[in-house]
Design brief:
Elements (H helix, E strand, L loop, with lengths): L5 E5 L15 H9 L20 E6 L5 H18 L2 E5 L6 H11 L4 E5 L19 H7 L5 E7 L4 H9 L3 E4 L10 E11 L21 H10 L1 E10 L10 H20 L1
This protein binds manganese (II) ion (MN) (2 copies).
């Protein structure tokens, strides 16, 4: 029997970022923000995370180099899934979602993925790199690791990625139609991948790719809180502390972490 615990895992890796490094510094900063004395550990549905024993931080994946990073991430998540029911990963750049989902697909053969991002991350390759943070969902879909992929918040779809989305039957909810993402429902287990640049840069300036016209913090929270699904795992990626202003994006990431924990605990 699996326990009902939730593991919060750090992945300090930004080796496949195309534009700016910095996301490797994020996991520790997000946890610092979570425990900052300026706020508390209560969630909006009235759970005191400080008084709960069904979640824990389990440290960082020990990453030594780009070559072995993915196998280390997959192995660590895989071993956590053997002991725990759910893993929330703090990235890192978005490339890490591919090895994480490889581990999840082993545990959940009918996995759905809900992906929030300004970008579809469906490139066949970028700059000759197939593991780029612009490619994880192409790798996931071509390896049949998810039975369904829904992307929301997208506002940079180009011709190549539109073809990729059609090839992989990705359901895209464009940013301009984002209201229809506020009551999503899924049959079967769901993995939620949140690239912080799904948010408007006004709400989350601490990201490498500023893409105006994005979601508000409240819209992302509403999406998490109204999601009708069995949420089995999640990641929060692409926080770049080097680009942050007064730590505001770190607090946004910590807030999303709290509300994802709350949503998972409601399922228990
Ligand atoms: Mn993005
Ligand atoms: Mn992304």
């Amino acid at each position: 029997m699996k326990s009902e615990n939730i593991a919060v895992l750090g992945v300090p890796f930004d080796g496949y970022s195309t534009y700016l490094r910095g996301a490797a510094k994020a996991p520790g900063k997000i946890l610092e923000s979570l425990h900052c004395d300026s706020s508390n550990l209560w969630t909006e549905n009235g759970i005191d995370l400080g008084g709960r024993t069904d979640w824990e931080t389990v440290g960082d994946v020990d990453i030594k180099d780009d070559k072995t990073a993915f196998s280390k991430i997959e192995d660590r998540v895989g071993s956590l899934l053997k002991d725990k029911s759910r893993v929330i990963t703090l990235g890192g750049d978005h490339s890490i979602t591919y090895p994480i989902v490889r581990a999840y697909a082993g545990a959940y053969p009918e996995l759905n993925i809900l992906h929030l991002d300004a970008h579809p991350d469906l490139y066949e390759e970028l700059g000759g790199i197939r593991h780029s943070h612009a490619c994880p969902f192409a790798r996931i879909m071509e390896n049949n690791l998810a039975s369904k992929l829904v992307q929301a918040g997208i506002r940079t779809l180009n011709g190549h990625q539109k073809e990729q989305a059609e090839r992989f039957k990705v359901e895209i909810i464009d940013m301009k139609n984002i209201e229809s993402a506020m009551d999503l429902s899924f049959d079967g287990p769901v993995y939620l991948s949140i690239d912080l640049d799904c948010l408007d840069p006004a709400f989350a300036p601490g990201v490498s790719h500023h893409e105006p016209g994005g979601m508000s913090t409240r819209q992302v929270l509403t999406l998490i809180q109204t999601l009708d699904a069995d949420l089995v795992g999640a990641d929060i990626v692409e926080y770049n502390p080097d680009r942050d202003l007064n730590g505001v994006t770190g607090m946004v990431a910590a807030k999303l972490l709290k509300e994802i924990l709350a949503r998972m605990m409601e399922n228990n």
